[in-house]
Design goal:
The complex is a heterodimer of chains A (330) and B (348).
Chain A (H helix, E strand, L loop, with lengths): L1 H21 L25 E6 L6 H17 L2 E6 L3 H13 L4 E5 L3 H13 L4 E4 L3 H7 L4 E3 L2 H14 L4 E6 L5 H14 L2 E6 L5 H14 L5 E4 L2 H13 L5 E5 L3 H8 L5 E4 L2 H18 L9 E2 L3 E3 L4 H9 L4
Parallel strand pairs in A: 1-2, 1-3, 3-4, 4-5, 5-11, 6-7, 6-8, 8-9, 9-10
Antiparallel strand pairs in A: 10-12
Helix pairs in contact in A: 2-11, 3-4, 6-7, 8-9, 10-12
Chain B lengths: L1 H9 L8 H6 L4 H17 L6 H26 L7 H17 L5 H26 L3 H24 L3 E2 L8 H8 L2 E4 L2 E4 L1 H18 L1 H11 L1 H6 L4 H27 L2 E2 L6 H11 L11 H21 L6 H27 L1
Antiparallel strand pairs in B: 1-4, 2-3
Classes of the chains: A alpha/beta (330), B mainly alpha (348).
């Protein structure tokens, strides 16, 4: 009985593969050529630079930061490593490990500055220059970091609030996809500060997008006066488009962060605009700046945060950005 | 002849039981009452909640959860967990997405291949559990972590991003969309077709459990493996098939998601495995196996769907969302437990 079944499985698989080989029309996403990692510059600095962030693996945003880090590494001929852990204590341990390896430079994102303070100061005491990226602008200088590269979440929120106000939005919801994330709360608060009208926060789960869609729809159904939706991540923006259509709502949609679907949505008018904080720059610039510091003692920013955002993606530039987003660099 | 009748009447195992008692000892009764209470509760708080639009809305998350809850309930009655069930939905969707949009495979061939892939995962889960006799909790936890890494690693390797998109441009998408993701308008509200699939899964699941020999095997294996083995139940085969049924559910849900959203994320389904188990437990499944029902699991999913959307309709502060969700679920389980204890008392 078992043998007979096994005898059937192989030819069946063979047939499948044959069927697959016959049709090529489905390949709408052409396999990416490795435009990300091809050598651009001919730098041969050879510095060992460790990047330790709090981004979850699989997070769209942090995968772009990582792409920027790797590109800078290959452009400059630096030896870069990228590690991440969302748990502050584990992130601190990763920093300690990098210090033990005597790296030439360290890049850290500080979602939880207090927990990382000791490790960062240990690095600085060991003579390793540190640059902080993304979060932790307020503590960066005090901890002894060279500079901070990132976006001020409140400033970005303000920008979104202003834009929506101009579009006539008075009652907006702000969709938070990660409970307890300080940065996301700041964005919503920033929107509220400049919009002037009502802003209500809504919680959804980033890992269950169909349910997120249903929740946004529920909110739109329960309050018909909602005329604006702000999402805080590209993946949620895509389902918010559907939710607004399903609910028969005319609410205007704006989003933080970018991906190919968002760029497409902006292009065809379903999303009013997107705010990009250019994560690629946060990865690329941090490695570049450390390299410049090691080789020429240059420091950028003059003690102020080097801002990578907010930049607006609107109908005018969405088409070009869509291609870059599909390649994983925007 | 008169003698036989008296013996039969004296045997309490075949005694006739009244309708009320028969209803009350069903595993799903507690969750049915829970569902009615939750429905009434949110209906009072919000008018939209019990309108056609509102019902269509909360049935939507309940439906995909329900499909998984039914397959997970069968597995749990058989005495096992599958912690990899959630990420398997991602694996299935990502496999279909990559094979079509990047490698140009025929859409339906890709669906079959993705089914073969997840069934193989289910087989490995089951085979390892049967062979090693280790708790399924540990085996599937390993599988869960491996698949999580695999989903992300492969997606990034092929796409350079963390999602597979443009699935709406593949051949046969329209057909798939009408089967898996279209809506049916009833009373002016759009109901997801997945709700119909959920009902199909529930009916088939119940039928298998209650009317087939395989169903008896499931209860026997979950109740006591050794005695099941001794009376000739193929314990190994039953266990492996149960894991493969769960994988089949994941295949269905994962592919329904990529069809509906036209894209799928590398982290899809992560964390959902616990929600499936929660739904099955609210529906009366015992964590120790041997007891439970498919309808109960579906009602558990219904309670979860109503609660998660009801909180939004009620307009409660979003910061407290998880607290309310947890409290409602705890209430549902407690009332369920209370009803069951009452049921067991009446049974005597």
């Amino acid at each position: 009985m078992f043998k007979m079944r096994r005898a059937l499985v192989l030819p069946a698989l063979g047939l499948l593969l044959a069927a697959a080989a016959c049709s090529g029309g489905n390949a709408v996403n052409k396999p990416q050529t490795d435009n990300n990692n091809n050598a651009g510059g001919a730098g041969k600095y050879g510095y060992k630079i460790a990047v330790v962030t709090h981004g979850a693996s699989g997070d769209a945003f942090w995968s772009i930061v990582k792409a920027g880090v790797q590109k800078a590494g290959s452009d400059l001929g630096d030896n870069v490593t990228y590690e991440s852990d969302g748990d502050p204590q584990k992130q601190a341990q990763l920093i300690d490990a990098a210090v033990n390896q005597k790296v030439d430079g360290l890049v850290v994102s500080m979602a939880n500055p207090g927990a990382l303070k000791a490790s960062i100061q240990k690095a600085i005491a060991a003579g390793i220059p540190v640059i902080t990226i993304n979060s932790g602008a307020a503590d960066s200088k005090a901890f002894g970091a060279l500079s901070h590269i990132g976006q001020d979440e409140s400033v970005a929120g303000n920008a979104v609030g202003n834009q929506l106000k101009q579009a006539g939005v008075k009652n907006a919801i702000c969709v938070i996809q990660e409970a307890g994330n300080v940065g996301l709360e700041q964005r919503c608060a920033g929107v509220k500060a400049t919009l002037g009208g009502t802003v209500t926060n809504v919680q959804v789960d980033n890992n269950n997008l169909p349910a997120a869609q249903a929740t946004i729809k529920a909110k739109l159904q329960s309050d018909k006066t909602i005329d604006g939706v702000v999402t805080l991540g590209g993946q949620v923006a895509a389902v918010a488009v559907n939710a607004i259509a399903d609910a028969g709502s005319t609410a205007k949609l704006a989003t933080f962060d970018l991906n190919a679907d968002v760029a497409k949505g902006v292009e065809n008018g379903k999303i009013l605009f997107a705010v990009d904080q250019q994560p690629y720059l946060q990865g690329y610039l941090s490695v570049q700046m450390l390299t410049l510091y090691k080789s020429n003692l240059n420091v950028l920013g003059g003690g102020q945060t080097v801002l990578t955002g907010p930049t607006l993606v609107t109908k005018d530039n969405a088409g070009q950005i869509e291609k870059l987003a599909a390649a994983g660099t925007r | 002849m008169a003698a036989t009748t008296t013996t039969a009447a004296a045997d309490e195992r075949v005694a006739r039981v009244g309708l009320f008692k028969r209803l009350v000892v069903k595993p799903e009764l507690g969750s049915l009452i829970g569902a009615i209470v939750i429905f009434a509760f949110f209906s009072v708080l919000s008018d939209v909640f019990h309108s056609a639009n509102g019902i269509a809305n909360w049935l939507d998350p309940a439906s995909t959860l329900g499909i998984m809850a039914v397959t997970v309930a069968l597995l749990m009655i058989g005495g096992h967990f599958d912690l990899s069930a959630g990420v398997q939905t991602g694996t299935a969707g990502i496999a279909t997405g990559l094979l079509t949009t990047y490698y140009g495979m025929n859409t339906f061939a890709a669906l079959v291949l993705s089914l073969v892939l997840v069934l193989a995962i289910g087989f490995i889960n089951g085979y390892l559990v049967v062979r090693t006799k280790l708790p399924s909790f540990i085996i599937t936890l390993g599988m869960f972590l491996m698949l999580q890494g695999l989903n992300l690693g492969v997606t990034k390797l092929v796409t350079n991003t963390v999602q597979v998109n443009n699935f709406d441009q593949v051949g046969g998408y329209k057909v798939l969309h009408s089967i898996l993701a279209s809506t049916v308008t009833i009373a002016g509200a759009p109901f997801q077709i997945a709700i119909a699939w959920w009902i199909v899964f529930t009916i088939v699941g119940s039928w298998v459990l209650l009317k087939t020999r395989f169903g008896n095997w499931i209860f026997a294996v979950g109740g006591d493996q050794n005695s099941a083995n001794n009376v000739g139940v193929p314990v190994g085969r039953t266990t492996i098939i149960l894991f493969m049924i769960t994988s089949f559910g994941a295949w269905f849900v994962g592919n329904a998601q990529i069809v509906r959203l036209t894209s799928i994320q590398a982290q899809t389904g992560f964390g959902q495995e616990l929600i499936y188990i929660v739904a099955a437990v609210i529906g009366g499944c015992l964590l120790t196996g041997g007891f439970g029902s498919a309808i109960g699991a579906s009602l558990g999913a219904l309670i979860f769907g109503m609660t998660s959307q009801g909180i939004v309709y009620a307009g409660w502060d979003a910061d407290w969302f998880k607290f309310f969700l947890g409290a409602m679920l705890l209430l549902a389980v407690l009332s369920n437990q209370y009803v069951r204890r009452f049921a067991e008392q009446t049974r005597r």
